[in-house]
Structures are given as C-alpha cells and as structure tokens.
Design a protein that fits this description.
Helix content: 25-40%
Order of helices and strands: EHEEHEHHEHEEHEH
CATH architecture of the largest domain: 2-Layer Sandwich
Distance between the termini: 23 Å
Protein name: DUF1697 domain-containing protein
Number of strands: 8
CATH topology of the largest domain: Alpha-Beta Plaits
Largest sheet: 4 strands, antiparallel
Structural class: alpha+beta
CATH class of the largest domain: Alpha Beta
Shape: globular
Organism: Galbibacter marinus
Strand order of the largest sheet: 2-3-1-4
Length: 181
C-alpha cells in the first residue's frame, strides 16, 4: 500500500485579468473525481492543497493533463510538499531582515535559470525591488509594492525565458497552515 502524502499545488497564470478562467469549486470537484483526497482551494489564483499517493512529478503531469483536457489550455503546475514550503518560508532572507511581510513575494520557476540569464535579471535589481535567487526560486522584497513593480512575474519570465508563478507572503503562510490541518 502506498503512503498518502499532502501536497501544495500552484497553478500558473489562471484567473488573471479575466483570462484562463478556472472556477476553484469546479477544479476541486475535478481533482476529487480524479482520485485526489482532502482537496482544498485557497483564493482564486490557483492554489490547491490535496492528498495523494502519487509522487510530485506524477501529480504535476496529471494535473496539467486534466486542465488541458477539461479547460482547453495549458497551465504550468508547481507541486510542493509542506516540508518544501516550510523550508522556503524559513529560508527567506527578507524575513530574516525583518522586511514588512506585505512587501514579500516568491516566484517559483519551472527550472533553474542559466547563469547568463540570472545576470541579466540581476541588472534590474534596485533599492525598491530587491530579489535573491535560490536555485529555481526567487525571493522578492517590493518596497513600493508589487503593483508598481517593474520586475513582475511576466518580466521575470521574459528575461529568464522560464515560466514561473508568484505568490505573496500571506498566501505562502496560509498554504502552509492549510497543508498542516
């Protein structure tokens, strides 16, 4: 018998500006019907907590296929364990510097950027928009807020040529809390 594990799933670029719409109640039902257990969603930006006996790579592939089949568009999916998310939260250098929580974001990248692309993006770092790479993750501190940011998720994707999804710190902490219930 395989062990059931809890996962946090982040869907990239859904329900943004009225595009690529997926109702969270419908997604929850789709996942339940597909064998996932204890499915919860959090806000409309594509955050899911569920239980499965599958491995992370299997879940990524399965959910991406389910969304393509049922909604007709591709969605890059990021799958974390509560342990993964806990480590990301604990390792945020801006939390350690006591930056205001509402200014903090994380961008999850589909894979690790090459050194040249990283250097290009680092050229856009300013006092108002600080960020630090950690493998396939970027920690951000937007001192003037995300809404005024130049180095936003689409900008990062364009410069690195890698798909990613961003979450604010409140969402990250809430997802960790929900994953432990």
């Amino acid at each position: 018998m395989k062990l059931l594990k809890t996962y946090i799933i982040l869907l990239r670029a859904i329900n943004v500006g009225g595009h690529r719409k997926i109702k969270m109640a419908d997604l929850k039902q789709l996942l339940l019907n597909s064998g996932y257990q204890n499915v919860q969603t959090y806000i409309q930006s594509g955050n899911v907590i569920c239980v499965s006996e599958k491995e992370k790579s299997q879940i990524k592939q399965h959910i991406e296929s389910l969304i393509l089949e049922n909604y007709g568009f591709e969605v890059t999916t990021f799958v974390l364990t509560p342990t993964d998310l806990q480590a990301i939260i604990e390792n945020n250098p801006y939390v350690k510097q006591q930056a205001p929580i509402e200014k903090l974001y994380c961008t999850f990248l589909e894979n690790q950027p090459d050194p040249e692309s990283k250097e290009i993006l680092l050229g856009f770092k300013t006092q108002d928009e600080e960020f630090i790479f950690d493998r396939s993750l970027l920690y951000f501190c937007y001192h003037k807020g995300y809404g005024k940011a130049k180095v936003s998720n689409p900008f990062v994707e364009k410069k690195l040529k890698i798909q990613g999804t961003s979450r604010n710190w409140k969402t990250m902490r809430k997802l960790l809390e929900l994953s432990k219930q």
